[in-house]
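User: Some background: our group keeps a shared notebook of sequences we're curious about, and every so often someone picks one and asks for a predicted structure to add to the entry. Today it's my turn. The entry only has the sequence so far, pasted here. Could you supply the structure so I can complete it?
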Amino acid sequence: MYNWLQKHLDVKHYIILDDNVYDYEKYNLMDHLVYLSFHMGLQYTHIEECIKKVQMDF
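Assistant: Of course. Here's the predicted structure to add to the notebook entry:
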């Protein structure tokens, strides 16, 4: 994700949906992460969190 963002500097508004944290903290991407459960997948509460993050991003 980080490498892709470095190649696409015009991208400012995005959300990361993932069931693993990887190096998101290392690259200061945690504000964009919506953490999903591996077993449950995307839930309604995640959608609410995505909406809040997008609204904060503008």
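Suggested note for the entry: The mean pLDDT is 91. The CA atoms of residues 17 and 34 lie 5 Å apart.
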